[in-house]
Amino acid sequence: MPLKQTDVAFLQGYDTLAFVRKLKDAGTTRGQLIPYQTSLSFDPQRDVDTNQTKSGVVPTTSALETDFETEFINNISKVADWIYDSLMDEEELEIWIVYRKRVNSEGKRFAWYMRGKVTEDSNDNDPDDNSTRDATFTIDGKPQRGWLALPDEVEEEIAYVFRGLGVIEGDAKNDGTDGEGTAWDKDKDAGAGSNPDQAKKTATTGKAG
Questions:
Q1: Cα distances (Å, whole numbers) of residue 183 to 72, 176, 189
Q2: Angle at alpha carbon of residue 74, lines to 149 and 175, rounded to 5°
Q3: Of the candidates 143, 132, 138, the residue with the CA atom closest to the CA atom of residue 96
Q4: How many Å apart are CA 109 and CA 124, to the nearest integer?
């Protein structure tokens, strides 16, 4: 029986993120999120040629070629500089494309893993807009599929938590209580709260309205 459309989960570009790391730093540094990504393009492909023979057409395929491209708002970060280093100094990078909403039974996310170098880094600087960069990577070999765990600090980079207006003294707890705040509890807070002016009026007159 064919699957109905409602049985097939879809994925959104918003939840697809790129991470990079210098290959030489694999023993000391975790993969880092490219900050302020605005688009991501992953394009593995093979060219197919055909030879006409007396017995019919015989297809031949070339080696797999993969282009990876990401656009992001230019920023001051070590990751943005790694991308420059790869282009200028031919430094090899490790690259991950992580699909945050495709999760296996262990809570790990589906991802593509690749190695390659930046071959173009276009920088636009319009006077009425943010400085943007468009980096194109040429990938070595065949991209590999797998599952990975996102560290807690990465989740915090992607989805920040509620904070109050108060000054945050010391290290942030990132649990919704920073700045004298209280995070929303969807099980307890739906419909909670009241208008204090209305409450005063009710207390004075003995009736609402």
A1: 30, 4, 10
A2: 40
A3: 143
A4: 33
